Every structure is written in C-alpha cells, then in structure tokens.
Q: What sequence folds into this?
C-alpha cells in the first residue's frame, strides 16, 4: 500500500488546534499533545480483534494492543479517521463506529519515545476477516472479551499502556457494555 505523508493535529489542553506536524517527526522524547483515536472491533460472537504492532513501528513495535489506533487529519471527523485506518491497516470496511470514551487522554513512554494524546475510543462490529498491512500490523487474533480482560489483568506489561487503561474504563462504561450486548449474539 502506498503511504502519503500523514500529519498529526497539535492541540492544547482545551483541544484547540495549534497546528499540524508530520507524523514521522512528532513521536520523540518530548512529544507534543495531539489528536488520536483508539478502536475496539468485535465480531458477532463478542470476540475482540487484537493486533500485534508491526516490528517496523516507531512506537511500541511488536507490542499487542487493541484493534486499531491512529490520528485524524486536520478537518477530518474522528469517526471517519477510524474507518480510514481500519481499512488501511486491516482491510476492514465498516459502515459505522460508535464513540464510547470521548475524553480519553494518556501519556506513556517507552524506549525514549513518548505518546501524548487526546484519544477518544470507538467501538465497531464486523464478521469480516482482516487482511493485514504488514507495514502496520505483525499479526492478529480474536479473543473473547472476558479472556482479553483477564489477560490484561494478569499480564499488563504485555500490552500497550493505552490499551490497558482503555480496557479498565470500558469495563465501567454503560455505553460500551450496552453496545456489546446489542451486537453480540
């Protein structure tokens, strides 16, 4: 897949746009706050699609995480960015996603690289099988939500720090739990 240069949207604490910067230059030891998103995609059996990040990734290579993360472009609605990245990374074409944690924000550091993001969390549903973009994703697996939560609880160090935090918040989210019940058989 060809890759055009992506930018991130730099923001202040009030989510006001300060400008943009090339994605490739932003994630350093002093990463500025920027917009991002995180998604959790389930099938009709209630299983979540998990990914191991590609060994080529600058941040958290080969770490397991939720289905897909990314950055909306300037003037791009975040839900549209989620759908774009699901297609780019996993070949999944969903018609909609649901925002369940609109105000999630985190900061994490690994190997001298910092993530510093306002990162709303979305949920979606599909029974399609992914087609991996190996530039982005090393491998995937489907796991029941209960097994996934237990794995996060038992071995949080094996997962991306944002994923660990998001799972804790999702478990307490009435919106999330209602969506999962609605779409799972």
A:
């Amino acid at each position: 897949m060809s890759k055009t240069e992506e930018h991130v949207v730099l923001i202040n604490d009030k989510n006001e746009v300060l400008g943009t910067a090339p994605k490739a230059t932003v994630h350093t030891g002093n990463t500025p706050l920027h917009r991002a998103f995180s998604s959790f995609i389930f099938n009709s059996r209630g299983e979540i699609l998990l990914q191991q990040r590609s060994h080529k990734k600058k941040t958290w290579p080969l770490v397991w995480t939720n289905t897909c993360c990314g950055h909306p472009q300037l003037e791009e609605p975040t839900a549209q960015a989620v759908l774009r990245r699901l297609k780019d990374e996993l070949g999944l074409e969903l018609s909609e996603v649901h925002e369940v944690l609109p105000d999630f924000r985190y900061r994490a550091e690994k190997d001298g690289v910092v993530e510093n993001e306002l990162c709303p969390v979305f949920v979606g549903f599909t029974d399609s099988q992914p087609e991996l973009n190996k530039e982005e994703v090393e491998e995937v697996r489907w796991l029941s939500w209960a097994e996934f939560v237990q794995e996060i609880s038992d071995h949080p160090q094996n997962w991306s720090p944002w994923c660990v935090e998001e799972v804790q918040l999702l478990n307490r989210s009435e919106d999330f739990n209602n969506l999962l019940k609605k779409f799972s058989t």
